[in-house]
Write a structure and sequence with these properties.
eight-stranded mixed beta sheet; 27% strand
């Protein structure tokens, strides 16, 4: 599997880190690990598991510890830390870096940042950014939209109506993420996100019209930069000889980089309103994640009625149905 990296300067810009000292190769430094550690143990002298290729973030706790040391001890502590060549050190929570920190960073040519955010928030933001940049990825042909908060990735052969369905969904208040090419990234062990390549972002191809800019036509509320993929829908031409699932009990999935995503197959035929069908599919998928499965409940009620003998015969049902309209 391919590995990826991100420039330290780009990471700093994304997370509003202010440079106190930039290493001589600052613009060339690449980070390829999605790990951010605190330097408490190294400051105390424990370096057995020190990672030299990652970013470290310190805050008030580490600053308070350094103040317990005399000037000579602080200098030795910081020189030893920077001599192990961390990728960078971020001083958080509006802590003013001690002169020993700045001097050691300059001596060993290690980038030093400051930020107003607290240490936990800084680490969380950096880890999220790193996971996004370093995530394994792949590109697939399809259309990706967000419907009622659910990321729905639409597959299907060329010309079956994927883009036209997405356009109808946009008119109904939902949002486009990508058309034609969808870049998928595995951002965690259990989830994948989808986004559009930058050169075709917000664009759609509509046969007979050509390329349109969705953001310009429908406004910024009609597009999203990325979303988690919650559901995959495959459009296929209606085959009268094929038996389609009518209850919804069959469960299928699509594998993206080792993450399985629920999958539905929707037959396409004249007069089928695919936009409404996808709205229902998205809402139903949300209910399933909440533990509400209409198909399972229907079957359970059906089996329970048969077991208890309370299930109406067809004749009784027709008789009761007619009475509702003749009373």
């Amino acid at each position: 599997m391919d590995t990826y990296s991100v420039k330290l300067s780009k990471l700093a810009k994304e997370n509003n880190l202010k440079v106190v000292y930039a290493a001589s190769d600052y613009e060339d430094i690449e980070i390829d690990k999605d790990i951010v550690n605190r330097p408490g143990l190294p400051f105390s002298g424990f370096y057995e598991y020190f990672r030299s290729e990652i970013i470290y973030a310190m805050g008030k706790t580490e600053a308070a510890f350094l103040r317990t040391l005399d000037e000579e001890q602080r200098e030795r502590t910081m020189e030893k830390f920077f001599s192990h060549e961390p990728a960078a050190l971020v001083v958080c929570n509006r802590v003013v870096p001690d002169i020993s920190i700045v001097s050691a960073a300059r001596k060993y040519d290690i980038t030093l940042f400051i930020t107003d955010l607290d240490t936990s928030a800084t680490m969380a933001r950096l880890i999220i950014s790193l996971r996004n940049h370093l995530a394994p990825r792949m590109t697939v042909h399809g259309v990706f939209v967000q419907i009622h908060g659910e990321g729905v990735l639409i597959f299907g052969e060329s010309g079956i109506g994927k883009s036209e369905t997405a356009l109808e969904l946009i008119k109904r208040g939902h949002r486009l993420i990508a058309d034609d090419a969808v870049e998928i990234r595995r951002v965690s062990r259990y989830s994948v996100t989808g986004m559009s390549p930058s050169n075709i972002r917000h664009m759609m191809e509509i046969r007979g019209i050509g390329i349109i800019d969705v953001r310009q036509l429908y406004g910024v509320g009609a597009v999203l930069p990325r979303s988690q993929i919650h559901l995959v829908v495959k459009f296929e031409s209606w085959d009268e000889n094929k038996v389609y699932d009518r209850l919804g009990l069959e469960e299928d999935s699509e594998d993206f980089l080792g993450v399985k995503v629920p999958k539905l197959t929707i037959p396409v035929a004249p007069a089928r309103n695919l936009a409404i069908i996808l709205e229902v599919a998205a809402l139903n998928n949300r209910l399933k994640k909440m533990g509400i499965n209409a198909a399972q409940r229907f079957v359970e009620n059906y089996d329970s009625s048969i077991s208890s003998g309370s299930f109406e015969s067809e004749e009784d049902f027709n008789f009761n149905y007619l009475n509702e309209f003749t009373d």
